[in-house]
Every structure is written in structure tokens, then in C-alpha cells.
């Protein structure tokens, strides 16, 4: 974290030109990523496997060194983090209740309140190993909520859930946002649901390929063509940023800093065909 005085103070977290190298090399994993999340926003990061989504999350949280660039987190920011993987040692029995008190001890009432809020009341005495995938995700979310976070960070929270489970989980995230006012930063591959649940979507592929409101993206004919086709369309999202025609998005603001309705912005080094090449993305 460096030079927060040079960055805007309103966002909960903001990065400028965030660049990460593969450990021990000068090979970039992420290049010049400008990112921000505002209070109460739901922002989802999408991108193909290995595109740097988890690395971005870790760098924003300060868990990973930057090769260059800046990250600023608002002073006193409380973050509830649900990591991509939680290794359970099945040899060590652990109840949900005990898990909720790690690493910070909480009262029975707090634990039960968090479980109730995430739709799994009464699970406290159960062994973690006896939970379904959906129940386990809700317990992880409950634990993240115990710190009363300003920002929830979830890295692929619906991995392993079936489609109804995914939809229910995103509904829960929206409910939590409404009840607590917490902002939500997610990594997800569940693109169809992401499009319904996010205020803003950021598409990564080693850099920011594009970002904007899902409503805006979903009105593009390319998007409809791509997403009407189920899984095939889902994969095609990652191509859309490399073959679309920006003229089809007349209200696109191209304003990275604003990130407002219709914003559709290309990061530095994005090599795809720009039909508005006269408009370079401004520095945030
Ligand atoms: N600890 C590490 N050591 C070496 N390379 C790493 C390490 N962590 C990540 N990488 C590499 O950095 C790149 C980005 O990885 P990252 O996990 O951020 O991608 P991702 O978009 O989250 O992928 P996925 O969708 O598969 O979870 C990958 O090429 C990965 O191999």
C-alpha cells in the first residue's frame, strides 16, 4: 500500500496500474490494473482460468506483493473474506460453532445470528465435514459476516454448487448487501447469474479487457448472441471483448474513473480491435 493521498478517498479499495509478476520472475500475471470498489457496490471479476482474478483479489487485500502500481484501502476498512479454497483437515473434528470462533472468538448469540442471516440456523453443533457444499458456503459467508464488514470479498463462492444452489447463493449475497450495506467483491464463473446480480463487471485477462454495468453489456447484440447459447455463450464472453464493435454501445462513457452506466473501458495493453481508438482510457 502506498501513497494513498494520491488516490481518491471515497472507494473502499482502489488500485492504480497494479502490476503483479509471477513469483521470482519478471513475467506479468497482471499488468496496469486500475480498479475500484465503492461502498455498497457489488462488483464481479470474471475471466478465463489463469487470467489473474484470484491474484487481483489477493493483491487488493495486501496478501501479495506488487511489482509496481498502487493499492489504497480506506482507513479502518473491515473486510470479510471467503477464500477460493478452504482446506479441511478431516482428521481433526470441528463443529460449525467452533469454526465460527476461528480466528476471533464470538459468542453463541453472534454465531447463531450469523448462521440465521445466511439461511442455515441451528447448524452450530454439526461437523464441518457433514455439511453439503451449499451449507458449507453459507457457513463460510456467516464467518465472513461476523466482523461486520464494510466489504465482503468472495473468491468463486459457488464452486461445486448446482444451478439452484448458485442462484440461491447470489440471492443471499444481494440480501446481505441490502441488510448490511456491505459492498461485495466477487470472483465468479457463473456468468449468467453474475449478469443479474452485479452492479459492475470487470473482465480480466492479464489486464482489464473491459468493464461496465451488466445491464449495459447485456443489451449488446453480441452479448445476447453469446449468452443465449448456454455454456458455449458463457465461454464466448471472454471473446466478446476482443471482437465487439463499440459503435453498438452509443452511450458508453469510456470513463474508467467514473465507472458509470454504460462504461466500457479497455485497460492498457489490451490488444483487441478498438473502434474508438481516438479515446484512450484516462488515468483514474
Ligand atoms: N503462487 C504462485 N506461484 C506461481 N504462479 C502463480 C502463483 N499463483 C498464481 N500463479 C499464476 O498466476 C496466474 C494467475 O493465477 P490466478 O489464480 O490469479 O488466476 P485465476 O484467474 O484466479 O484462475 P482460476 O479461474 O483458474 O481460479 C496463473 O498463470 C497462475 O499459474
Automatic annotation (TrEMBL):
<keyword id="KW-0862">Zinc</keyword>
<dbReference type="InterPro" id="IPR003439">
    <property type="entry name" value="ABC_transporter-like_ATP-bd"/>
</dbReference>
<dbReference type="InterPro" id="IPR050153">
    <property type="entry name" value="Metal_Ion_Import_ABC"/>
</dbReference>
<keyword id="KW-0813">Transport</keyword>
<keyword id="KW-0864">Zinc transport</keyword>
<keyword id="KW-0547">Nucleotide-binding</keyword>
<keyword id="KW-0067">ATP-binding</keyword>
<feature type="domain" description="ABC transporter">
    <location>
        <begin position="15"/>
        <end position="230"/>
    </location>
</feature>
<dbReference type="InterPro" id="IPR027417">
    <property type="entry name" value="P-loop_NTPase"/>
</dbReference>
<keyword id="KW-1278">Translocase</keyword>
<feature type="compositionally biased region" description="Basic and acidic residues">
    <location>
        <begin position="246"/>
        <end position="257"/>
    </location>
</feature>
<dbReference type="Pfam" id="PF00005">
    <property type="entry name" value="ABC_tran"/>
</dbReference>
<keyword id="KW-0472">Membrane</keyword>
<feature type="compositionally biased region" description="Basic and acidic residues">
    <location>
        <begin position="271"/>
        <end position="284"/>
    </location>
</feature>
<protein>
    <submittedName>
        <fullName>ATP-binding cassette domain-containing protein</fullName>
    </submittedName>
</protein>
<keyword id="KW-0406">Ion transport</keyword>
<dbReference type="GO" id="GO:0005524">
    <property type="term" value="F:ATP binding"/>
</dbReference>
<keyword id="KW-1003">Cell membrane</keyword>
<dbReference type="InterPro" id="IPR003593">
    <property type="entry name" value="AAA+_ATPase"/>
</dbReference>
<dbReference type="InterPro" id="IPR017871">
    <property type="entry name" value="ABC_transporter-like_CS"/>
</dbReference>
<feature type="region of interest" description="Disordered">
    <location>
        <begin position="246"/>
        <end position="284"/>
    </location>
</feature>
Amino acid at each position: 500500500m502506498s501513497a494513498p493521498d494520491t488516490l481518491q478517498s471515497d472507494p473502499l479499495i482502489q488500485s492504480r496500474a497494479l502490476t503483479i509478476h509471477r513469483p521470482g520472475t519478471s513475467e506479468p500475471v497482471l499488468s496496469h490494473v486500475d480498479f475500484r470498489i465503492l461502498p455498497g457496490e457489488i462488483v464481479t471479476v470474471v475471466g478465463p482460468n489463469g487470467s489473474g482474478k484470484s491474484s487481483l483479489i489477493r493483491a487488493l487485500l495486501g496478501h501479495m506483493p506488487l511489482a509496481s502500481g498502487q493499492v489504497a484501502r480506506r482507513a479502518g476498512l473491515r473486510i470479510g473474506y471467503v477464500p477460493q479454497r478452504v482446506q479441511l483437515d478431516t482428521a481433526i473434528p470441528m463443529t460449525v460453532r467452533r469454526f465460527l470462533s476461528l480466528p476471533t472468538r464470538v459468542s453463541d448469540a453472534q454465531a447463531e445470528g450469523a448462521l440465521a442471516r445466511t439461511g442455515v440456523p441451528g447448524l452450530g453443533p454439526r461437523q464441518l465435514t457433514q455439511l453439503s457444499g451449499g451449507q458449507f458456503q453459507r457457513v463460510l459467508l456467516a464467518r465472513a459476516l461476523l466482523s461486520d464488514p464494510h466489504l465482503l470479498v468472495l473468491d468463486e463462492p459457488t464452486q461445486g454448487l448446482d444451478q439452484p444452489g448458485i442462484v440461491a447463493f447470489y440471492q443471499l449475497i444481494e440480501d446481505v448487501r441490502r441488510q448490511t450495506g456491505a459492498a461485495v467483491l466477487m470472483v465468479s464463473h457463473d456468468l449468467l447469474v453474475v449478469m443479474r446480480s452485479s452492479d459492475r463487471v470487470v473482465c480480466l485477462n492479464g489486464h482489464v479487457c473491459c468493464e461496465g454495468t451488466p445491464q449495459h453489456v447485456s443489451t449488446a447484440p453480441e452479448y445476447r448472441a453469446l449468452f443465449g447459447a448456454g455454456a458455449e455463450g458463457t465461454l464466448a464472453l471472454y471473446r466478446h471483448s476482443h471482437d465487439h464493435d463499440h459503435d453498438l454501445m452509443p452511450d458508453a462513457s469510456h470513463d474508467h474513473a467514473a465507472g458509470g452506466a454504460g462504461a466500457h473501458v479497455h485497460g492498457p495493453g489490451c490488444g483487441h480491435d478498438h473502434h474508438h481508438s481516438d479515446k484512450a482510457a484516462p488515468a483514474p
